[in-house]
Amino acid sequence: MCTVVILHRPGHEWPLLLAANRDEMAGRPWRPPARHWPDRPQVVGGFDEDAGGTWLGINDDGLVAAVLNRPHSLGPSPGKRSRGELPLEALEHADAAEAAAALAHLDGRAWRPFNLVVADNRDVFWLRHDGGADVEVRAVPAGVSMITANDRNDVDAPRIARHLPRFRAAVAPDPDAGDWRAWTALLADDAPPHPLCLPRRNGFGTVCGSLLALPAVGREGVRPVHLFAPGPPCAAPYGPVAA
Questions:
Q1: How far apart, in whole angstroms, are the C-alpha atoms of residue 228 and residue 32?
Q2: Of 216, 214, 196, which Cα lies nearest the Cα of 206?
Q3: β-pairing, 114-119 with 3-8?
Q4: Contact 6, 123 (CB under 8 A)
Q5: Which residues contact 217 (CB under 8 A, 6 or more apart)?
Q6: In CA terms, which of 65, 66, 116, 161 is 20 to 30 Å from 124?
Q7: Stated pTM of the model
Q8: What is the tens place of the pLDDT at every residue in 100-119?
Q9: Which residues, at least 6 apart from 55, have a Cβ–Cβ distance to it below 8 Å?
């Protein structure tokens, strides 16, 4: 179960802050974020060596996309396409509204269930697919949101019930000052019950982490912030993505 945390602040100098911990089988090979796709030179993201897609990426227009599994749908399935294609499809678009509208027309039966987040510095959308034909699009409101394998802010999910109030109470990161301390401490929490940095058990656990911040329109010379932890964020430090 991966985790995405969103702080959506319309009108703020940093209207979107997003953090993600990726949980995966340790034996599934991957590469850190870079421009891995010659046919998509505008995309920077982590690379899944098995299927060629990504779990999280950003394009040069400042659009972010991240995919998560829904419950009981870990891994590939015969006859189904890789969910790692979905962020790449989203990142073909210039903004979140355009991407969400385009992906809403997909036939969801081609993929196992997923949650997909698409966001820019104006809009944030959650695309929910439960295994049928339809892909449901929901706008993410202002404030703090948390998505795992379950629905957004679903407090029936133990991980969300434990950690969502903590993120809401935490001091928001300050990308101008490079200060993400409150969030990185929470993302590194490996203590039971329901840790965010999942210790490896039976070959499965948290394998890496990402932090992104998008500046408001009109902030001349201010670029998005993209930081990456190349291992479990309870053990590996974050550093800037050089792409």
A1: 8
A2: 196
A3: unpaired
A4: no
A5: 121, 122
A6: 161
A7: 0.97
A8: 999 999 999 999 999 999 99
A9: 2, 20, 22, 24, 45, 46, 48, 66, 67, 84, 87
